[in-house]
Amino acid sequence: MKLEVGQKAPDFSLYDSDKNKVSLSDFKGRQVLILFFPQAFTSVCTKELCNVRDHIAQYNHVNAQVLGISVDSVFTLGKFKQEQELNFPLLSDFNKEVSTAYGSLYDNFVFDMKGVSKRSAFVIDGEGIIRYAEVLENAGDLPNFGSIESALAITN
User: Fold this and answer.
1) Predicted TM-score (pTM) of this structure
2) What DSSP letter does each residue of 69-110 carry, written as one string?
3) DSSP symbols for 35-51
4) Residue of 74, 56, 75, 76 whose CA lies nearest to 65
5) For the segment 128-142, what is each residue's pLDDT rounded down to a tens digit?
6) How far apart are CA 41 and CA 33, in angstroms?
7) What CA–CA distances, in Å, run from 30 to 22, 79, 94?
8) Is the CB of residue 126 less than 8 Å from the CB of residue 139?
9) pLDDT, tens digit, for every residue of 27-38?
10) Residue 70: how many CB atoms within 10 A of its CB?
11) Residues tagged active-site
């Protein structure tokens, strides 16, 4: 299912790397940047999430909550978050339900892996409406952070 700008974002509840349950609805009234990523500890995912880490002040300035989501376990995400000193929650979609709801799941990934999150970015406004949606087919590509920043009204 492809989600479009202007649609209501599917709500979800997932466990984060600290084993706390986090729901999209927890952030009502705030913008949310959801970044689906294929797998922790891979080079492009590390580059993407560390870039967000290094620019977290921009997101905080516009009261935007960043959430990283992958199908990795909470334990893997906890180690990845710790090693990379990430300063935003990483959520485990181990059962692949949220990735599926957001149209962000590869049927087939490298090494014959099935059901890995596609690299994707969604900006959700404070009312739960999608304001930006980008789902990448090539896991080596990065989301368009210029367009994400525009959707969040980040000015440099």
Assistant:
1) 0.94
2) EESS-HHHHHHHHHHHT--S-EEE-TT-HHHHHTT-EESS-G
3) EE-S-TT-HHHHHHHHH
4) 56
5) 999 999 999 888 899
6) 21
7) 14, 28, 26
8) no
9) 999 999 999 999
10) 26
11) 45
